[in-house]
Amino acid sequence: MEKVLTIAGSDCSGGAGIQADIKTITVHKLYAMSVITALTAQNTTGVYGVQDVTPDFVAQQLDCIFRDIKPNAIKIGMVSNPDIIAVISEKLQEYQGVNIVLDPVMVATSGGKLLKDHAVEVLAEKLIPLAEVITPNIPEAEALCGFQIDSLDDMRKAAEKLSSIAGKGILIKGGHLFSSADDLLLYESKEYWFREEKINNPNTHGTGCTLSSAIACNLAKGHSVPDSVLLAKKYITGALRDHFDVGKGRGPLNHCYAIR
Ligand SMILES: Nc1ncnc2c1ncn2[C@@H]1O[C@H](COP(=O)(O)OP(=O)(O)OP(=O)(O)O)[C@@H](O)[C@H]1O
Ligand SMILES: Cc1ncc(CO)c(N)n1
């Protein structure tokens, strides 16, 4: 059985972060491991507290995993601050981590900040180049490339700009744009569009975490990058179509119905 590691923050309400990743990896019938970068006190209505793990303890968790069980793919989510980013970058290079999918998490669906402002440049310099695929949503892509994205054509321009800092694939998620949920992958200078109708479901807490860990699962199974994104897009669309409704705010996905 392939092993997938998630390096991310904990969401105590179970919708995003480590919890969403472990559910996704398990539904893909793979073995899940986790390195926790931060504890968050959050639920479907907001993020109420963040407690970062020390960089040394993040390093210790990574050492324990890589000295014992080598992951076939790695998903990186919330990384919180520059020191945590630096340590993850060093360790992934030391242990030659493969199939790295980086979700540059900055702000939660409910609005809470999950990455310090001054950490964006460090993320771009130290982690983004190591990734097989990065998966920014529209606001994250705007923060990384420095201009506003209002159209599918702007998504294309942003992907091209990001290809100068990203190692390989760039997937810009269109979930935050108007009426469609079209995602654009730029991989090996080729464009792939993954088009889906926008589902009228306000419960999108954890969609980004789930999509990136599903891509990591598919890479671990040996699929190509474009095929991994296609399968992950089907997974997320299936989970959204279930119209699961938990909590008082922007609710989570139902992983039990993502693959039928
Ligand atoms: N209402 C929707 N209908 C269909 N697909 C959606 C919808 N909202 C998001 N998606 C899809 O879900 C995936 C995640 O995109 P999104 O832009 O929501 O990520 P995100 O903002 O990083 O998520 P989060 O921060 O909530 O974890 C993308 O494939 C996107 O197209
Ligand atoms: C821990 C964590 N990671 C990522 C997100 C983004 O959805 C979130 N809300 N919480």
Model description:
The chain is α/β, with parallel strands linked by helices and 260 residues long. The protein has a single domain (3-257), classed as UDP-N-acetylmuramoyl-L-alanine:D-glutamate ligase. 36% of the residues lie in helices and 20% in strands. A nine-stranded mixed beta sheet has the order 3-2-1-4-5-6-7-8-9, with helices on both faces. Helix 1 (17-27) links the parallel strand 1 and strand 2 (31-43). It is globular and about 45 Å long. The two termini are 21 Å apart. The mean pLDDT is 94. Adenosine-5'-triphosphate (ATP) is lined by residues 16, 109, 137, 173-176, 181, 183, 196, 198-199, 201, 204-209, 211, 233, 236-237, 240. Residues 16, 109, 137, 173-176, 181, 183, 196, 198-199, 201, 204-209, 211, 233, 236-237, 240 line the site of adenosine-5'-triphosphate.
Features of this protein?
8 helices; nine-stranded mixed sheet; alpha/beta; 260 residues; HMP/HMP-P_kinase_dom; binds 4-amino-5-hydroxymethyl-2-methylpyrimidine; UDP-N-acetylmuramoyl-L-alanine:D-glutamate ligase; binds adenosine-5'-triphosphate
Give the full name of the CATH homologous superfamily.
Ribokinase
Order of helices and strands, N to C?
EHEEHEHEHEHHEEEHH
Give the termini separation: 21 Å
- Count of β-strands: 9
- Which small compounds were modeled alongside the protein? adenosine-5'-triphosphate, 4-amino-5-hydroxymethyl-2-methylpyrimidine
Count of individual domains: 1
Return residue spans where pLDDT drops below 50 for at least 5 consecutive residues: none
Average pLDDT taken over every residue: 94
Give me the Rg, rounded: 16 Å
CATH topology: UDP-N-acetylmuramoyl-L-alanine:D-glutamate ligase
Structural class by sheet pairing and helices: alpha/beta
The number of helical elements comes to: 8
Widest β-sheet, arrangement of strands: 3-2-1-4-5-6-7-8-9
Judging by the overall fold, what is the CATH architecture? 3-Layer(aba) Sandwich
**CATH class descriptor:** Alpha Beta
GO molecular function: ATP binding; hydroxymethylpyrimidine kinase activity; phosphomethylpyrimidine kinase activity
Catalytic activity: 4-amino-2-methyl-5-(phosphooxymethyl)pyrimidine + ATP = 4-amino-2-methyl-5-(diphosphooxymethyl)pyrimidine + ADP; 4-amino-5-hydroxymethyl-2-methylpyrimidine + ATP = 4-amino-2-methyl-5-(phosphooxymethyl)pyrimidine + ADP + H(+)
Keywords: ATP-binding, Kinase, Nucleotide-binding, Thiamine biosynthesis, Transferase
Domain Pyridoxamine kinase/Phosphomethylpyrimidine kinase: 11-254
